[in-house]
TrEMBL record, chain A:
This is Phosphate transport ATP-binding protein PstB. Gene3D superfamilies: P-loop containing nucleotide triphosphate hydrolases. One of its GO terms (cellular component) is membrane. PROSITE patterns: ABC_TRANSPORTER_1 (PS00211), ABC_TRANSPORTER_2 (PS50893). Pfam families: ABC_tran. The keyword Lipid metabolism does not apply.
From TrEMBL, chain B:
Its main location: membrane. GO terms for biological process: phosphate ion transmembrane transport. The lineage of its organism: Bacteria, Pseudomonadati, Pseudomonadota, Gammaproteobacteria, Oceanospirillales. NCBIfam families: 3a0107s02c. It holds the Pfam family BPD_transp_1. It is a multi-pass membrane protein. CDD domains: TM_PBP2. This is Phosphate transport system permease protein PstA. Residues 269-501 form the ABC transmembrane type-1 domain.
Length: 270, 518
């Protein structure tokens, strides 16, 4: 433990948006894997139709937090949590909330692309077919719309029936985004979506994120400071499972309030 | 690229004797397998070849006719002796003749030597003296031969017609009577039919052959008993090939004769394949469900680990133990109960309370269950969690995730399990003897009667057929070629079943290019 601890920031106080603009609200949230704490007393608000970036050293709990936001931890019997997470004001752990419904509203894209071993078309239609009752025509249209939204349509429109695993890594990641968009989520969680991609694919994904902002709330986990600076509106810095600093991206990168934040950013950027 | 190549080039040198030892073991195993298959193929396939008949004249003037089987040194080391297969069991009491090579004066292959294949008594070898039809003139020489050939052709057709009639008209009636569905009028009808059958049979008798053996004895042979007549020494290679092909086809397509020592094995092929298919249909769903439960549903605690170890060890239990279990639980336990509840009117003759296709399939399914579970579990464990999470994150329930993503991805593994199960089950004989295999089951378990697939019936099996022909037939030496042929067939059938499953798996894999990674 450092000899001189910095004063605990009053978390979430530095963001400047109105409470009505909050999409996701995390309050007093803590999470443990068995005996091992991964998140501690986390409180923050994620603004609607903006890009919020989570940064922090490896193992600080970014993915854990992201997975908590659409209850992917539910299946892990080891996990214990406390606190509250609200989506548009409603507690996502409330008994009347259906997990499947929640996950459709809060979509998630993982670090490594994980298309299913099916055709490109079937991948995008997967979530829609789960809901059922969609005519072939509408299904086609939605698939096309999702692929267009993910800036993949032009590359795959001639081979929709080809195996999704025949796509390149960057295309696969955009396919996964399309697949998630197809079910019409309000929030899109992206866990290092570009870490496995080459620079050009990365740029495409970043552009995509910027474009999606107009209709979606985006949460982006990244190790790439430039990327966070380029695409996000707000940035949260986490360390050891705690929220250290949360501010508009410009402020956080140019004028961090805390030494810890500055060290991390400059260390990475230098 | 270049590093990979260097690594390969270095390997044999660096490994030294170990590499040789390993390579040697592989070579030895492959050679032994090739030897096994080669032996089965040569001995088995040779059985259908119409070999030349030798006419042997001994120093003392005696003559005998037969096919040379083998030549071995005499026990005292002086000279050698030859074994001839002479046929004519009813005349000599034996179909073999040992002849010291030194005592042989000449060996010739006269064209007129005839080999008759008969329904009873096996082969007859000799000269055709005369053809004595019921009506018409007595014929001799070449005329007798052609008369015989044309009569055999009509006889064959008559026999087939009779067989069809028996199957389509007579057998269903008999079955209806046995199951108590038909009334007294049917009994009369049956008797009338049986009388007609006897009449027709009798009408076929009458024509006779007179033959002379090599040593001059005469014999009268009713033509109706004769299945085929050949003169192998007069046949060219093409004709022999034709006869060989027809012989092999008869072996595949006909039922057994003469206490399983002659004739074909069609019911046994059918029984083997049907047994394995029913077994696969039973074991695959159970095994897959069990594996899914163990791998995807159950809490991964100590109990699950224990169950998993138990399942793995079950694979090592000797098959006869499963046979005993099947007999006790399926046949007597469940079968007896079923009979008491649903088939009480036919008791004490059992319906399900005796061995049958269903119980044998179930027993084999139990035997192969661990294999399917283990293979499927391994396939499930290889599927990355991110695939499961991907499905869940799209709002899939656990059931949807399993059925739409996980199980399709695990299909190749399930089929691998099925392949292993088929391989194990198709070769099992021991447990079958307890739970339903039959020495002779003329009715295959599938026919035109509702419900078409008769799971309660007994069935024949290639493996048991070999066992039976080898240990219960009278003349093992005579049945030997047939045993080889059956063994070859068993291997081929298993191979074919496996290839079918492998083809299926390949087909499923190639539907999605790189899916084979999982
Ligand atoms: N399933 C799990 N079981 C137990 N511990 C876990 C599990 N997943 C993560 N952890 C632990 O929780 C802590 C936070 O992990 P998390 O994956 O959230 O980190 P992260 O910030 O996403 O790191 P990275 O940047 O490397 O992805 C780590 O110490 C990790 O070891
Ligand atoms: Mg992570």
């Amino acid at each position: 433990m450092p000899v001189m601890r910095e004063p605990a920031p009053s978390r979430g106080a530095f963001v400047d948006f109105a409470p009505e603009a909050t999409s996701l609200e995390v309050s007093g949230f803590g999470l443990r894997y068995g005996d091992k704490p991964a998140l501690r007393n986390l409180t923050l608000r994620v603004p609607r139709h903006r890009v919020t970036a989570f940064i922090g050293p490896s193992g600080c709990g970014k993915s854990t937090l992201l997975r908590a936001l659409n209850r992917l931890h539910d299946l892990n019997e080891e996990v214990q949590w406390e606190g509250r997470i609200r989506l548009e004001g409603q507690d996502i752990h409330a008994p009347e909330v259906s997990v499947a419904e929640l996950r459709r509203r809060v979509g998630m894209v993982f670090q490594a692309p994980n298309p299913f071993p099916m055709s490109i078309y079937d991948n995008v239609a997967f979530g829609l077919r789960l809901q059922g009752g969609m005519r072939k025509r509408r299904l086609d249209d939605t698939v096309e719309w999702a692929l267009r939204s993910a800036a993949l349509w032009d590359e795959v429109k001639d081979r929709l029936q080809a195996s999704a695993w025949s796509l390149s890594g960057g295309q696969q990641q955009r396919l996964v985004i399309a697949r998630t968009l197809a079910v019409g989520p309000e929030v899109l969680l992206l866990d290092e979506p570009a870490s496995a991609l080459d620079p050009i694919s990365t740029l495409k994904v970043e552009e995509l994120i910027r474009n999606l902002k107009s209709s979606l709330t985006l949460v982006l986990v990244t190790h790439n400071m430039q990327q966070a600076a380029r695409v996000s509106d707000y940035t949260a810095f986490l360390q050891d499972g705690e929220l250290v600093e949360y501010a508009p991206t410009d402020t956080l990168f140019t004028n961090p309030r805390l030494r810890r934040t500055e060290n991390y950013i400059t260390g990475r950027m230098a | 690229m270049s590093r990979w190549w260097q690594g390969r080039a270095r390997l044999p040198r660096g490994e030294g004797p170990w590499a040789w030892l390993a390579a040697g073991s592989v070579t030895l195993s492959v050679a032994l397998l090739a030897l096994l298959l080669g032996l089965l193929a040569i001995r088995g396939l040779g059985h259908f070849w119409p070999g030349d008949i030798a006419l042997v004249t001994l120093e003392d003037g005696r003559q005998l006719a037969g096919r040379e089987v083998k030549e071995v040194p005499l026990p005292d080391g002086e000279g050698r002796e030859r074994l001839y297969r002479t046929g004519n069991r009813e005349l000599d009491g034996d179909i073999w003749a040992w002849v010291p090579v030194a005592a042989i004066e000449t060996v010739s292959h006269p064209r007129e030597l005839v080999s008759l294949e008969r329904r009873h008594w096996g082969e007859l070898v000799g000269r055709l003296v005369a053809w004595v039809p019921e009506q018409g003139p007595r014929l001799e020489g070449e005329a007798a031969w052609s008369a015989l050939q044309s009569r055999l052709g009509t006889l064959e057709r008559q026999r087939e017609a009779l067989e069809r009639w028996r199957e389509q008209t007579l057998s269903p009636l008999v079955r209806r009577l046995e199951s108590g569905e038909a009334d007294a009028a049917a009994t009369d009808a049956l008797q009338a039919l049986q009388a007609r059958l006897r009449e027709r049979r009798a009408a076929m008798a009458g024509d006779r052959l007179i033959l002379a053996t090599a040593d001059g004895r005469r014999l009268v042979q009713p033509v109706e008993e004769v299945l085929r007549a050949t003169r192998p020494n007069a046949m060219g290679v093409l004709a022999k090939l034709g006869a060989w092909g027809r012989g092999a086809w008869r072996f595949l397509s006909e039922g057994p004769r003469a206490a399983n020592t002659a004739g074909g094995v069609w019911p046994a092929i059918f029984g083997t394949v049907l047994l394995v298919m029913v077994m696969s249909l039973l074991v695959t769903p159970f095994g897959v469900l069990a594996a899914v439960y163990l791998n995807e549903v159950a809490h991964q605690g100590r109990l699950t680990r224990l169950v998993r170890i138990g399942v793995r060890n079950l694979a090592g239990v000797p098959s006869i133990v499963y046979g005993v279990f099947g007999l006790g639980v399926f046949v007597y336990g469940i079968g007896g109960r079923l009979d008491a509840w649903f088939f009480a009117d036919t008791l004490p003759s059992p319906t399900f309370g005796t061995g049958g296709l269903l119980w044998a399939s179930l027993t084999l399914a139990l035997l192969t269950l661990p294999v399917v579970i283990v293979a499927t579990e391994e396939g499930l464990a290889r599927i990355p969690d991110r695939q499961r999470e991907g499905a869940l994150a799209l709002g899939a329930t656990r059931l949807e995730m399993l059925s739409r993503v996980v199980l399709p991805m695990a299909t190749p593994a399930m089929l691998t399990g099925m392949i292993l199960a088929v391989a194990r089950a198709a070769g099992e004989v021991a447990p079958l003897m307890l739970v339903g295999v039959a020495k002779l089951a003329p009715q295959v378990p599938v026919d035109g009667d509702f419900p078409f697939l008769h799971l309660e019936r007994k069935f024949m099996h290639l493996g048991y057929h070999i066992f039976d022909a080898a240990f219960h037939g009278g003349d093992v030496q005579a049945a030997m070629p047939l045993i080889y042929a059956t063994a070859l067939l068993l291997v081929l059938v298993i191979l074919l079943l496996n290839l079918t499953a492998i083809f299926l798996r390949h087909h499923l894999r190639s539907r999605h290019g790189t899916l084979s990674q999982c």
